[in-house]
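Problem: given the chain below (120 residues), write out its structure.
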Amino acid sequence: MNKKFLITLLTSSNEKILKLSYDSVVNQKNHNIDYSIIIVVNSLDGDYYQNVCDEFKTIDVEIIQTQTQSNGKPGMGHNSLFKVFYEKTDFDYMISLDGDDFLYPYALYQLSKCFNNHTY
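Solution.
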């Protein structure tokens, strides 16, 4: 498969849980998906952005800071991911995860089976 995936991790709190979510992505088994991970910190708390940078200081991952005012609904933060995806023209598909979501170890394997069975 020669499609490239962007996996975004959207976070606004708890960098320790975010690290576990990140680990669930990088520890995927038996897949042939070409992907990159970008962490999107969507928080008005500048200290939290720094906490995320500190948590990932030994890991080569792109971290982007966005700041959208909350309207009490999840859409505004998630919409910032589309902007990132549109700006990163190298990618064909985006997989969006919240910073407290986890992938089962064979999630990308299951997804790759779908792409291996079809020509796009």
